[in-house]
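Retro notes, structure queue

What went well: the backlog is down to a handful. What didn't: a couple of records were mislabeled last round, so from now on we paste the full input next to the output in the thread. Example, using Peptidase S1 domain-containing protein from Brachionus calyciflorus:
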Amino acid sequence: YNQIGNNDIGIIKLVEEVSLDNYVQIACLPSESLSLYNGIEASTAGWGYQNESTNVLISFSLHNVKLSIYDINDCIDANVTSFMESYGKICAGEINGGKGTCTGDEGGPLFIEQLIDGEIRYVLVGIISKRIGCGRANMLEIFTNVQYYMSWINFYL
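Corresponding output:
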């Protein structure tokens, strides 16, 4: 654990196979080669708060939202990353606010749809890490960049 948000990633290796169905699917991992996601629309999902003013932590349904991916310097300009290093991060959100992740969503996915071997697949590009508030205007969110850690992930898998 790193309190300022660096290296905000972990691996859990399962002993048994997971049964796949309509509700449980596998997300692909990105390649180790550098990919820039700036300008791409991504999706995120979580069970957390729906807004900052709620006092109910657990949602009874999984919520998802589409966010735009920005250059990490846009997050630095918005003072979101002033408390952490910018390496290994993806910046996403909506400049005008109104949608984003919230308390309880940390550790959830940021994924894109990508054509792989002729099929549309979900690729895990980020992990929800840090934000200020929930979907605030001019407050982009920080996600751990999974591609940045692929050599580390492959070493342990």
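Agreed that this is the format going forward. Reviewer comment attached to the example: The CA atoms of residues 109 and 127 lie 5 Å apart.
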